[in-house]
DNA sequence: GATGAATGAGTCTTCATTCAT
DNA sequence: TATGAATGAAGACTCATTCAT
């Protein structure tokens, strides 16, 4: 009603970019706490200190909003990893540093990427996003492995390489989940353990020391599918 | 409208046990297809060819129903594994067979256990169930590892053992997820790959060939937490 | 399947009358505990140790069942009162004994008549029943008052008499409610108090010592109905 | 479809306060007509000319809505009473005017306070509210009685006073119920009758003319509790 | 730009009641 | 007689989403 004298600057009317970050912050927080479905747009808007229509205007649908969160957090994580490896390091060293950076990041933001990621895996609408993210990680890992191999003048089939890379990423994801659920765990130590179990295994494998199923006679491939 | 000729007996008014299985079948199917939240009790009831109140009467709440599904499928999976290993086999052999049985089972029921399990991991209400299931699997694996070790007269700290077991289980879970998403993949071959990557790594590790982080000078632990 | 040897007589197949009483016992109990709506036919049947269709077969609809409860408890209460007054007593004495018997009964069965009655007053479907019960009580009271008056050779308009009787019954009902909610209260003492407050007032009134509104000038009857 | 000529302004999008009153109006109406349980939120929303979610947004749960109705009507009634008594009147006069105002109010809004109150008495969830309301009324009455007594330099035990006040309030409530059920009755006349019966009784009592149970020989306190 | 007001649609859940055995 | 099996109908409550100001 009255002309408001803006001696103390109220922080309304912020530029779009800032507002968007506030919203994303709130969204990440709420999605992490409640899960995708249990999170309500109301709570997110409230938490961002903004009205609901603004959220829709800036970030779109709930689904889009969730994806935006996933992207922002994913990007941050990727940057944390990229920032930890220098291109002049040996492939092994880069491997180790990436892993450590990854688990370090997850451990430091226990309500960020990993939680959203875990949730997204269970929900269909995000299948595409998830596949894309995982592909990116698999590529990086595969690249490192390939580098190592090439350095040793060894050749491994493309497919084989990808599968191994995939397995390693999967294992690491899983450990990341575990890390989120165990706040008392030390990321660095955890990284060491993973390096030991999985990556050493991979190294062995790629070095040629592979394992083969025993050729047992007469054993049937298990699980003849029972009736539905 | 028409006088129904009851040559084929109508399947109304079935005994409880039968109906419960029908319901669980339907529930597993729908939960897998749609995801926990998107699945509606209506669709489940319809799919089971029965009215909603029966579902509530027999299996309880949606949450309880989901847990019941998880249990049934989990139990079936465990049985598939148990049926694949004979107690007189060597620990190594049992390890391999368990893994193969597990991935075989997952591959054969791509809309069963693995999908439910994956969904449950993202939702808070099922945290307890998930933890319990994983514990059971970790125990089994740890038991096998311990057996192997003891056979070789080697000792490993209890904690270390558990962590390794956990990592292996996590990796395997993750590969199971992958298997579900890749219908063209061959479970047996996939099992071999996992055995190669992860379990060979574990073997190496337990054999003493462990890996240690390089003592690099001056490198800071990454990711000084940025502002929230 | 097998012919059951009934050496120990199981108490199934009871005569109808007994079964009905069991059901009514259970119904009164559950209705009192939960209230009419919150009570479920399931719980009543369970509590009676009988299957639901039997309840319907014997006592009919939930509404009818509730009315049956109301009747049985009302009759018991009436009998308790009738048993307490001998016809050769003076009207005053009969009045006092009735009141005492009534509150005594209510106090002794705190989950019986009074609770059902109170619930019934709020729900439309029972309006008829309630009206009938109250009529019966009002009649009794009015009869006693009339007797007293006639003994004193005094005449009071029929209408006036009924209204006074009604007021007394209403007051007593209300105190009965209170008694149910105050288990520590002593029925006998409470009866004395009611006798003091209400019945003494009635006596005064009927004796001619009546009160008249002050003839104030210019005061408007309050509450000119507001909008709405 | 047609261009709506907005000569008469459509009453959509009203300010919150207005809508809340509309909703409460509708709620009181429907609760009175149907009873608490039989009333559906749908009907209330319809009757208020608004969608259900608005009702939940503004007034909360069905239970909360009912309590809000009870409060609004209770407050209105209290105000009607307060507006009828001037502080400079004698205690007797204030007593009479309060009673008249109360019954006048009840009579003028036969689907308002009294009906809700009667319903609330039967349902557990509202026990607290009811107790609070009655307490307030008992206090007022007790205050008036105390004033009268003090004016006559008489002393009565605190407890006794409260009980008498309670009895009077109970009696009045009950008569209010009756009034609601007898639309043809005249509130003013009814008030006079109550004043005669109950309050004159109280006056007698407090004046010392009390009644005592006859010391009859050999009569047992009735109703030795039967089984069950 | 920003928001209070508003809703359509849908979900879980419960319950009185009745077949078919 | 007695009951397990079965359901139609309805109700409370929530939420993502969008006008109209």
From TrEMBL, chains A, B, C, D:
Spans through the membrane: none
InterPro entries with a match to the protein in the record: DesT_TetR_C, Homeodomain-like_sf, HTH-type_TetR-like_transc_reg, HTH_TetR, Tet_transcr_reg_TetR-rel_C_sf
GO MF entry, a single one: DNA-binding transcription factor activity
One GO term of the biological process aspect: negative regulation of DNA-templated transcription
Pfam families for the chain: TetR_C_46 (PF21943), TetR_N (PF00440)
Location of the DNA-binding region in this protein: 40-59
Protein name: TetR family transcriptional regulator
Species of provenance: Salinispora arenicola
Keyword annotations: DNA-binding, Transcription, Transcription regulation
Domain HTH tetR-type: 17-77
Keyword Ligase (UniProt): no
SUPFAM superfamilies in UniProt: Homeodomain-like (SSF46689), Tetracyclin repressor-like, C-terminal domain (SSF48498)
Region described as Disordered: 209-228
